[in-house]
Automatic annotation (TrEMBL):
Gene: Taf2
Organism: Rousia sp
The name this protein goes by in its record: TBP-associated factor 2
Domain of life per record: Eukaryota
Length: 73
């Protein structure tokens, strides 16, 4: 990160080329996961994450606790 002029942790300071490369890389990672574990298991993981997020969003907790949510599937 030291070689970049602006922080790459904030989407507002990223260049459009960097964002485009990040989206392409994310799509490739998703396809790699699908090929590795299969579509059905990948969808189960996404559904589990969605249900965990929906349950956590309904509870009155501090915003700092979101980082403690772990993938357990």
């Amino acid at each position: 990160e030291a070689q970049f002029y602006f922080s790459i942790k904030n989407l507002h300071t990223l260049s459009p080329m960097y964002i485009d490369a990040m989206f392409k890389k994310a799509a490739l990672v998703m396809r790699m996961l699908e090929h590795r574990i299969g579509l059905e298991l990948l969808l189960q993981v996404f559904n589990k994450q969605l249900s965990l997020a929906m349950n956590a969003a309904g509870q009155k907790i501090g915003s700092g606790l979101w980082s403690h949510m772990l993938i357990s599937t």
